[in-house]
Amino acid sequence: MSLDFQAAADEYIGWLQLEANRSPNTVRAYQGELRRLAGFLASRGHSLAMGDLRHEDLRAYQRHLATTLKSPASRARALVAIRSWLRWLARERLMDNDLSNGITLPRLEQRLPKPLPSDELARLLSSLPAESPLEKRDRALVHFLLSTGCRISEALQLERTDVPRRGNRLVVTGKGAKQRAVYLTDDAKAAVDDYLQARTDTCMALFVNYDRSTPNDLRRRLTPAGARHVVNRLRKELGAWSFKSPHVARHTTATSLLEVTGGDVRLVQEVLGHANLNTLQGYTKIVDSRKQDAYRRYQEYLTDKKREG
Questions:
Q1: Is 70 a catalytic residue?
Q2: Which of the following is catalytic: 87, 123, 160, 274?
């Protein structure tokens, strides 16, 4: 008897959670994509029995996504989820045929990550206010992200007890429940300590929300949406216009580390918690571009000196 769509989806989601150790965000995203596909098939009168699924159904779905999702990146994310599901079903022999080879991903234009320019970074770090508890939190959050290169989700799941009383090393949990050590600069450690000393609440979260709508101390953990709001406000107040999201801090850390380590990609891979070195190609291109620009200016300098001589 053929497995039905919902059972096949549930089996896969359970595997993602329990065996693959995928993050809750990834699991939710994949669930959403499977629901979207199920809705499309139902709208076409499909039986939703996996044995009835055909390549032409998947091609029709890809054409549907091309008209409903204008962004190639969004279409790619949707199709990667479906392709991974189909591959898993074939590998687990829950389907007779591997239909994943019928999924073709849109070609994506490679976009280089945009770190904070040095002038904006200097302005941001020198202008962060730290009078009120909220300002101390904002300064601590910015310093923490720029120092460690953490994803915002990694930073926000930390408890205040994760920050060492002495020393600058702490452990974060990244994708796939993998742990890694990160380090706070002296300025970052001082900013975090100053913020923690100013707190009077009982919430264990390292970064808390100061919104009056969250009076319960136990539920005051800062959310990703709250962190984005913090960054957007600081961006406007301090003129750090390139600081468009918390993830920009991660790009900035990666690029700066590559520069100061002479391009030690594996070290940066370890700091950022990237499983694949290919992920860092964008950062190395930025550093190479800066090196080329510096070399060009140096050549102009030598040419000018030669003319003066």
A1: no
A2: 274
